[in-house]
Specification:
By secondary structure, the protein is an alpha/beta fold. Helices cover about 40% and strands about 25% of the residues.
Length: about 260
């Protein structure tokens, strides 16, 4: 397996505030990577830039063979850039904290919609895949229900199935368990574990330190719009290199939880 995601000097500013400052990283195919850090450090914006929901101000981005490059002198995006961004979005699935399911459609219809609209698939093909994905996330029995009639954990699993319906090369999750009750967190984490076993490349922003440590191939710690440290899942908890990482883990995991 080789590098699937490459980011170099990616920066993003909103209303004069620099949210991301020259982010660089490489992620290999099949890796599950957790991004941790304090609120407001740029985690969610980084994910949105990877999926081109937010367009970087400058830097280089390459995902699954599609490359984007922008300099801070480019005020407008030309048609070539726009086409590449559209192609990249089709390779990257996104799962949000707030589910973002269509409330007026059943779970089965939610999963079928994007392939039919974006890829012009027939209803029969989209439905066949949707049933397989419902089995994958354990929701076959709930196919005919609307999102409001599901638990939070079930809705998040449905959101994962909907993202998978586009056959992405990469899955991004923005705090996928933060709005869930503790007993529902395990449901969602199990789906992500299963996808990891299948070789899906996944990036998740999370405050679930137990998940980050147990599931990740490595962990990225961000603060102030920058990547402070990239380490494997044990090293960053047992022997963090940077004082900012140590300070965050002491605060987040509890004073006295770690000795350095």
């Amino acid at each position: 397996m080789g590098s699937l995601i490459s980011v170099k000097n990616l920066s993003k500013t909103f209303h004069g505030h620099q949210v991301l400052n020259r982010i660089s990283m490489t992620i290999e195919e099949g890796d599950l990577v957790s991004i941790i850090g304090p609120s407001g450090c740029g985690k969610s914006t980084l994910l949105r830039c990877l999926n081109c929901l937010d367009i970087m101000d400058e830097g280089c981005l390459k995902i699954a063979g599609t490359s984007l490059k922008r300099t801070n002198t480019q005020q407008t995006l030309d048609s070539t850039f726009q086409k590449k961004a559209h192609r990249l979005r089709q390779e990257v699935g996104m799962v949000f904290q707030s589910f973002n399911l269509f409330g007026n459609k059943t779970i089965l219809q939610n999963i079928m919609l994007a392939p039919m609209v974006v890829k012009k698939e027939t209803q029969a093909i989209a439905e066949e895949r949707a049933w397989k994905l419902l089995d994958k996330v354990g929701l076959r029995a709930f196919a005919g229900r609307h999102p409001d009639n599901l638990s939070g954990g079930q809705r998040q699993r449905a959101a994962i199935a909907r993202a998978l319906a586009m056959n992405p090369k990469v899955m991004l999750y923005d705090e996928p368990t933060s709005s869930l009750d503790p007993e529902m967190v395990e449901e969602v984490m199990q789906v992500m574990h299963d996808l990891d076993d299948e070789g899906m490349t996944q990036i998740v922003t999370t405050h679930e330190m137990r998940f980050a440590r147990n599931a990740s191939d490595y962990i990225i710690f961000m603060e102030g719009g920058e990547i402070v440290e990239i380490s494997d899942e044990d090293e960053i908890f047992e022997n963090p290199k940077d004082e900012r990482t140590r300070r965050f883990l002491r605060h987040f995991c509890g004073l006295g939880a770690y000795e350095w």
